[in-house]
Amino acid sequence: MSLLLRDYDYPLPQSLIAAHPLPDRAASRMMVLHRAAHLIEHRHFADFPSFLAPGDLAVLNDTKVIPARAFSDDGRIEFLFLEHDGANRWVCMAKPGRKLPLGASTCVGGVPGIVREILPTGERRIQFDAAIDLDRIGQLPIPPYLGRPADASDTERYQTIFAREPGAVAAPTAGLHFTPEILARVPHTFVTLHVGAGTFRPVQVEDITAHTMHRERFEITPAAAEAIRAATRLIAVGTTTVRVLESCAARGEILPQSGSTEIFIHPPFEFRAIGALLTNFHLPKSTLLMLVSAFAGREFIMDAYAQAIRERYRFFSYGDCMLILP
User: Fold this and answer.
1) Listing from the earlier edge strand, what are the strands of the sheet with 56-61?
2) What gap in Å lies between CA 64 and CA 164, rounded to an integer?
3) Does the structural domain 5-65+143-325 have CATH classification 3.20.20.70?
4) Vertex 223 angle, CA 219 and 227, to 5°
5) Where in the chain is the domain with CATH 2.40.10.240?
């Protein structure tokens, strides 16, 4: 166990960052980690259903990425629209922020706005004069490490096939591997967690316990809660699903609810809800890497990542995946 940021770093060749998705969603490779035996298998995602046992339930995040990236009309400011905060009021990331001090004016899509508040984390709360039509002016906010602008293919491929609840600024990428055919073979239910700005925010303190986690909104429907309580084992599809389930389990039984979570899962952590995890390969020094390290053990995860690099797995959002089993 380590609480030092440097112990969650690893060297990654740029060539292993998947800049584009594979033609077939299910063609991704899948590294399978067996925690008790410290055994690693190299499989493909199409094999995922074969690892399920009777009573298993896959829990997936059905959030939908909105076209949240937009620019001021003069082109000087890039915005990421994070949260609709009332009548024509938005919480936004702004780059460069120095050009938008408190009280500054801007204009996006022909709609004037004024910075009413600068939040402690640097986001701006902006009051606009009218509604912002992101469907007309916005772009899909694909991750900056892809090193390219969004193109037409991202409109489909940077959404899961089951995305239906708009509100995220990043995709729950473990779900990107599913096709309708594979999903139909897997007992499953959905929760919703709208992935927020924290997915882009690096950890900047060496003692990771001093990191402040981002808040993300979630919902569990009555039908999902009933299915979850009836399952023998929950297989979380993605770290966002883990955050929902473990946040609720920490407060007791997983019940129907809407709320938000700021849970930061890092070693050591007592998992109360999930029994297995499907996830992608995460950025060095990221909170997501810390979460999977809490579930599988940091040393085992770092050994697995080193092996993935040697075997030339594809990394990050459009990359390959990892299934962590007991």
Assistant:
1) 39-44, 29-34, 321-325, 276-280, 233-237, 56-61, 188-193, 216-220, 257-261
2) 6
3) no
4) 105
5) 69-137
Q: Tell me the two tokens of residue 20.
A: 């584009």
Spatial distance between the Cα atoms of 155 and 236, rounded to a whole number of angstroms: 25
Mapped onto helix, strand or coil, the DSSP state of residue 48 is helix
pTM tops 0.90: yes
Residue 219 bridge partners (DSSP): 192, 258
What residues pair up with 108 in beta bridges, in sequence order?
111
Identify the helix (H) or strand (E) that includes residue 206.
Answer: none
pLDDT tens-digit readout, 117-147:
999 889 999 999 999 999 999 999 999 999 9
DSSP conformation letters of 70-88: EE-TTS--EEEEEEE-STT
CA atoms within 13 A on the CB side of 8: 30
Unique residue bearing structure tokens 């584009």: 20
Residue in 66, 50, 95 with CA at minimum distance from that of residue 195: 66
Question: Residue 107: enclosing H or E segment and its boundaries?
Answer: strand 105-108
Token pair 């004037």 in the structure block, residue = 112
CATH number of 69-137: 2.40.10.240
